[in-house]
Amino acid sequence: MLSMDKALESWVARWRQRVDLPLLVRWHTAPGEVPPDAPSWRLGAFEQPAVTVTVRDGAALPALLTPTLDSLGEAYVEGRIDVDGRIEDILAMAHTLAENGAAEGGGTLSRIVKSFTHSRKSDQAAIQYHYDVSNAFYSEWLDPAMVYSCAYFENGDETLAQAQLKKIDHILTKIRLQPGQRLLDIGCGWGALVIRAAQKFGARCVGITLSQNQYDLATERVRAAGLQNQVEIRLQDYRDVTGPFDRITSVGMFEHVGLKHLADYFRLIGELLTPDGWCMNHGITSTDAHDGETAHGGGRFIDKYVFPQGELPHISTVLRTMQEGGLEPWDAESLRRHYARTLSCWSETFEAKAERLRAMVPEKTWRIWRVYLAGCAWAFEHDQISLFQVLCRRAGRSAQELPWSRRWMYAGAPASG
Question: Measured between alpha carbons, how far apart are the two ends of the chain, in Å?
Fold first, then answer.
């Protein structure tokens, strides 16, 4: 106990020479409330701390002495530390500690390029780990349609539900979906896009997912909407789908494909498309030009606790591998600001319903999701990760078939060609 006290005292002294943080660190490894006389250290001059970290387990000490987003996040979700304060202040404090820790030599500024083997079995396990927490859990903080991807705030004043519907319509308008056309949605979630495509655009749709929970609820929602003759939901790997399809959408899914498999993924999409078909790939991208993970250990935390085997390509890699896979990228739109707002909406709802959500899942799961949603909102806001919609079609087609402008994407006007 004494040596740990001294280690913390030395750490606090070093930090106070460089930064003035409204952070209070307390030491109390016994269960229950923290007594007023528990050892505590201030990292700045303040009347009331913005954030209070309570060390509950001595194993958390290395995370404080050499802080990274990975080590701090792990200490929190494993219950080695408790953290009190507004989630925005907690995230700002964590990033300050990680960035200064890297400058001191304790952390790392490097962006590691990950590489995983993506078999059908491992991909299914990764998807089910993330999405099969419970439908009830997701429904508490998503919009009523349960759209779990970046919304589209056309004017900036939309509610989350309005922005999610606009995102779906934005995608379906971009791909120029027509009545009677056959649409494949790879990674269909809880079915919102295929249901909208059938109801508003008159398409015949197939939605695929590897999540049993998503499959069950999406199938139920299709039945409730009376769309069984237009929409089919499948529990199926994308590698097992056969075509052809006039239109293909992939929303928030290609992050699970793997960097080494992107060209093959896009090649398969091209094979599934009709010769004059269009595809929309909507997905999260790295802001590191070499496809590295988020800095300061944020990517390692997400891989360990949130998205096993997730790999984010830079937009340049997306465009290159599309071309390698036989697709022509025709239009790319960044929605980074939109995902920062989307995640902030999710995080705010999560915080507002904190106790209700905490009672629904194990404590560790609740902590993972709390820090994940807020952390991703911060990362999108500060250009550590991004998101692009890329509209593409089979390569080698005549230029005469291409529209002259992008006006139809926003005005909803028919595109020539």
Answer: 74
